[in-house]
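Give me the fold.
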Amino acid sequence: MTSSNMLTNTMTETSGLILYHTDGCHLCEIAQSLVEQLGMSYQHIDICDDEVLAERYGISIPVLVMGDKELFWPFDGEQLTDFIRSVV
């Protein structure tokens, strides 16, 4: 198995990845597309549904979170891949 296949398999099996977003955010849609291009499973959570999340991420979305690590926008596919590798 090549290293890219191993990464894809690891990312597909990864649970606990969260994409914080809000509806109507075009940057959030781009981030979601990047995550989906990697074939990863993730939770898609709207920060407007939670005061604490809105306070924390309101001006930073989209934000990817896994465990205690966060990846703030802007990021591209390569940065996203590096982030995933750093948390799995």
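Confidence is low (pLDDT under 50) at residues 1-14.
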